[in-house]
Amino acid sequence: MADWGMKITKPGKGVTSSSVKDYVLNSKYPNVLTYLVGTVSYTMPNEAKSQTNFTIAELTHDLGYKPYVIFYWQKSGSEYGADIFWEHQGSAPNDRLISIEADMDNNVFRIRYRYDGTGDTNLAGVTWNFKCYIFINKASV
Amino acid sequence: MSDFGVKVSRAGYPVLTAADNQLLYSSAFPTLPIFLTGTLSAGASVNHNLGYYPAFGFNMYTTHFDGDGITTMGSYTGGLSITCSTTTLTNGSSNDIRYFIFALDITEDYTAANVITTPATQATPDQDFGFKLSSQGNDVKTASYKDLISFSGVTIAGYGARMVLVHKVGHQDNIASTTTTNFSHNLGYVPMFLFFIKNHSASAYAQNYMRIDFGTNNIPLKVTASSSQLTLLNNTPDSLDVAYVIFKDPF
Fold first, then answer.
1. Pairs of CB atoms within 8 A across A/B
2. How many C-beta neighbours within 10 Å does residue A116 have?
3. Closest by alpha carbon to B251, among B209, B195, B190?
4. Number of C-alpha atoms within 13 angstroms, CB side, residue B185?
C-alpha cells in the first residue's frame, strides 16, 4: 500500500476498483478544492462609456501563485452566464463592443470592463453580480 | 446512514444537518479528482488515455488588457481550440495553458439525490480543521494548500474550504442548428457548472459558453443558467453534441 493513504469509492463500487472514476476520494489524485469563493456586485456608472478599461471587481487570494479560477456572472438580476461576457451594441458608426474580462496575478484576481467604440452605452446603471471560485490548485504556466 | 458512507462538513457547519452544498465532501456525491494536470504550450497535446471523454478545465493566459488577461473557461473563439478526446487533450490555441483533466466521464449521465437542502447555520469553528489529507510525499502537518488533497479547515478571510461536489452529469447528441435546448436540474438555485460542446461529427469536446462571430458581431452560441436549468442557444450552422457537469455549489 505504498501508493496511497486513503480512498473512498462511490456507492456500489468496490474499494479495490482500478478505475479512477469509481472514487469520490483517492489520495493518489488531488481534488479541485475551493480556497475562496467571492460574490461581488457592481453597478456601471452613468458615464461608463468614458471609462474604457477599468477594474470592476477584485478578489485578494494572496496564495503567492496563480491559482485555478472560474467565474460566473449575472446581469441585472436576470441572465446568468459563465466566464467572459461580450456584447455588441448599436449600429455603425456609433456601435460599440462591451466586454467583461478577467486577469490574475499571484495575489489578486480582477474582473475588468472594456469598451471599444463610440456612442452611448446602455450598460450605464446595469448591475453585475459575479461569483468567483478560486481553487487551491496551482494554474501557473 | 443508508445514503452515504462518509461525509465531512465545512468548518462551522454541523455535519448531521449541513445542506449538501455545505459539505466538504460526501461519499454520496462524485467529486472532481484531478487525473492529470500540467502546462501545455501552444500547439502541444497530452495523452490521458482514460478511454472516455473526461471533464476538463483550463486557465489560459492571454494578452488581454495589461498582459495578465485570463480565459478561465471556454469563451471567445480561443476556448474552442482546447479540445479533449477519449485519449488526448490538445492545446490548439496560440497561448500556453494550465490544464486539468478530471476523472469524470461526461457522457455517463448521473443525477445526485438532494439529501439535505435546508441550509444549516454556520457557527464559528473552534478549531482550524477536522479533516486534512496531503498529497503523496508531503507532510500533512506542514503541507501548503496546493499540496493538500482535502481540507475541512478555514482558508483566507474565514472561508471554509470545500471540495467541488457533482450534482448532475448529462449529455445530448445531435442538437440541431437554430434551436434552444434546456437541460434541467432540480437544485432550486443557480449552480456552478461546466459545459462541453463538439460538432456532431467531431471526436473531441471543447469547453464553451459563448461563441462570438467578430465578422458579423453576432453571438451564434450561448450557454446560460437559471435556478431550474441550463440553456443552450445554438445558432451555429452545425449540429452539436453537448455534455455538462452541474455542481452542488450555488451561484
1. 219
2. 12
3. B190
4. 31
Highest mean pLDDT among A39-48, A107-116, B180-189: B180-189
**In angstroms, what CA-CA distances link A81 with A20, A64, A115, B229?**
31, 29, 19, 12
What is the C-alpha to C-alpha distance for residues B224 and B137, in angstroms, rounded to an integer?
A: 41
Distances (CA, A) of B205 to B4, B89, B195: 32, 9, 10
Q: Position of cell 475551493?
A: A34
DSSP-based three-state secondary structure for B145: helix
Residue of higher predicted confidence among B148 and B237: B237
Flag if B68 and A11 touch (Cβ within 8 Å). Answer: no
Residue of B23, B147, B149, B227 to mutate, testing the A interface (most A Cβ within 10 Å of its Cβ): B149
Kind of pairing, strands B179-184 and B229-234? antiparallel
CA distance B27 to B2: 11
| Residue range B192-215, pLDDT digits in tens | 999 999 999 999 999 988 887 777
Q: CB of B98 within 8 Å of any CB in chain A?
A: yes
The tens digit of pLDDT for each residue in B53-85 reads: 999 999 988 765 555 677 777 665 555 689 999
Q: What is the pLDDT of residue B215?
A: 79
Chain B partners within 8 Å of A65 (Cβ): 146
Please say whether the beta carbons of B91 and B83 come within 8 A. Answer: no
Convert the pLDDT of each residue in B106-164 to its tens digit.
999 999 988 888 888 888 766 655 778 888 888 888 888 888 888 777 787 677 788 88
SS3 B67: coil
Predicted confidence (pLDDT) per residue in B14-63, tens digit: 888 999 888 888 878 888 889 999 999 999 999 999 999 999 999 988 76
**B49 in Cβ contact with B87 (< 8 Å):** yes
Cα(A109)–Cα(A135) distance, integer angstroms: 12
- Helix, strand, coil % (nearest 5) of chain A? 5, 55, 40
